[in-house]
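Design request, tokens follow.
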């Protein structure tokens, strides 16, 4: 390198040394005032952001803390609801299945239809039996009316029998009077014959006249004997001895028209007809006249026609026929009901689940063929720890968060009851802690929460979904049975039958 080229380099080196010296001189401590530092915009922004974050955290934590202090909650809770198992009421072969799983149905919708033909044939048979029973009723009524006609005739026959006895008694007395007349005639004829005998001995009369007197006496005697036999005949026809003990041929008992055998026979026939139509029997000591009066006395006005008309529907044959008709009608109604049961319909509104039936299957009565889950009868079963139950009461307000919808959709509800036993005691195989190896575990009790704003068309809930309920134990309970742990006894509206 030439000397000319090295000169600028030395010059630059000296300049740099001079500058360093001057700078070192300027850093010599001098008594000066400290400088004032102003906050930068970045630091201001960081402070505002921190304050905003603190406010946001406080705003987010405040409702959470408030809820923790005022509510009781559990994560052991789920959605529950009623399920109706659908089963046919009559056995038969499945003709049609009109629904499938997950289909929504309404109450009364046709779900399954069985073969109707066997039940239709049985219904036709029962209807024929009803027609026969109705004909039997009409026949029984006609028979009873015929019996009442005979009864009416027998009543007059009894009356006629008593009148015949009275007539025969009068005839007896008339014949006794005729006998007395003929006996008087006979006595006169005997006297005339006796006088004629004396006159004949003195030849005061002729033999011819005497024969006439003797003929008259014999005729009078024969007529008297005839009259006597007629009296005996009449007495025998009245059931009396031919010759009374007192000798008075005209004497008869005062109640002969009530005790005469013919009258009693007519009364027995009347009693037989009375028994056939269901009327009480006449006492054996009752007189025919008393029996007639008793029969007529069954009607206040003594109207026989009205009395007999009342007997028809109450007579045993008619009642028996009506009973058979009622039985036939019940059998027909049962057959018609069984025919209607061939249509298996939904009993509630809901969704079809567990379908296990197909056309052609033979099913039995009571066999579950599918199930219907209710859409509206939904509630929450919350298994609270036993240490949380002290503050829980019926009627307390609750908010429910469903895992399916998250915290964006909160359902409102109300505590409505406590299950009478923990889950351990209600298990199929409850624990037996008497074996000596007992370990205390906090038990849980199912608490029911009914939803108040549930709309299945907007936000449907499905049985088994996990939920988180929050019960506001600090607020006063509201609604039925508020503040209690047990609901009031629900009295039946059906009246208790008297003993």
């Amino acid at each position: 390198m030439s000397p000319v080229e090295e000169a600028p380099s030395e010059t630059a080196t000296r300049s740099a040394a001079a500058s360093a010296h001057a700078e070192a001189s300027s850093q010599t401590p001098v008594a000066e005032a400290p400088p004032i530092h102003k906050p930068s915009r970045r630091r201001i922004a960081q402070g505002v952001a921190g304050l905003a974050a603190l406010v946001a955290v406080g705003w987010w934590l405040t409702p959470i803390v408030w809820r923790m202090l005022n509510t009781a909650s559990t994560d052991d809770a789920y959605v529950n609801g009623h399920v109706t198992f659908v089963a046919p009421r009559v056995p038969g072969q499945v003709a049609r299945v009109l629904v499938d799983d997950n289909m929504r149905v309404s109450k009364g919708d046709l779900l399954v239809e069985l073969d109707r033909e066997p039940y239709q044939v049985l219904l036709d048979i029962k209807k024929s039996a009803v027609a026969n029973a109705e004909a039997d009723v009409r026949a029984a009524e006609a028979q009873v009316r015929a019996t009442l006609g005979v009864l009416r005739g027998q009543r007059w026959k009894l009356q006629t029998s008593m009148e015949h006895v009275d007539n025969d008694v009068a005839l007896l007395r008339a014949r006794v009077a005729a006998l007395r007349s003929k006996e008087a005639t006979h006595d006169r004829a005997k006297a005339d014959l006796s006088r004629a005998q004396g006159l004949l001995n003195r030849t005061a009369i002729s033999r011819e006249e005497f024969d006439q007197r003797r003929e008259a006496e014999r005729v009078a005697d024969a007529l008297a004997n005839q009259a006597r036999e007629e009296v005996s005949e009449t007495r025998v026809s009245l059931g009396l001895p031919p010759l009374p003990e007192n000798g008075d041929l005209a004497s008869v008992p005062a109640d002969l028209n009530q005790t005469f055998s013919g009258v009693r026979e007519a009364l027995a026939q009347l009693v037989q007809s009375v028994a056939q139509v269901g009327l009480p029997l006449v006492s054996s000591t009752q007189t025919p006249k008393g029996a007639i009066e008793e029969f007529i006395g069954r009607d206040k006005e003594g109207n026989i026609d009205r009395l007999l008309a009342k007997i028809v529907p109450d007579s045993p044959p008619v009642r028996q026929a009506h009973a058979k008709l009622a039985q036939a009608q019940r059998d027909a109604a049962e057959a018609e009901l069984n025919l209607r049961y061939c249509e298996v319909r939904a009993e509630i509104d809901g969704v079809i689940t567990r379908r296990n039936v197909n056309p052609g299957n033979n099913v039995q009565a009571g066999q579950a063929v599918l199930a219907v889950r209710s859409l509206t009868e939904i509630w929450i079963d919350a298994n609270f720890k036993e240490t949380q139950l002290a503050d829980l009461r019926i009627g307390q307000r609750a908010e429910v968060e469903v895992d399916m919808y998250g915290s964006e959709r909160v359902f409102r509800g109300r505590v409505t009851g406590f299950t009478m036993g923990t889950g351990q005691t209600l298990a199929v195989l409850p624990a037996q802690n008497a074996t000596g190896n007992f370990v205390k575990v906090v038990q849980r009790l199912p608490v029911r929460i009914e939803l108040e704003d549930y709309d299945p068309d907007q936000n449907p809930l499905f049985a088994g979904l996990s939920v988180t309920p929050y019960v506001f134990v600090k607020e006063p309970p509201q609604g039925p049975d508020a503040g209690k742990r047990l609901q009031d006894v629900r009295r039946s509206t059906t009246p208790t039958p008297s003993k």
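Comment from the thread starter after seeing the answer: thanks! The chain is about 45% helix and 15% strand.
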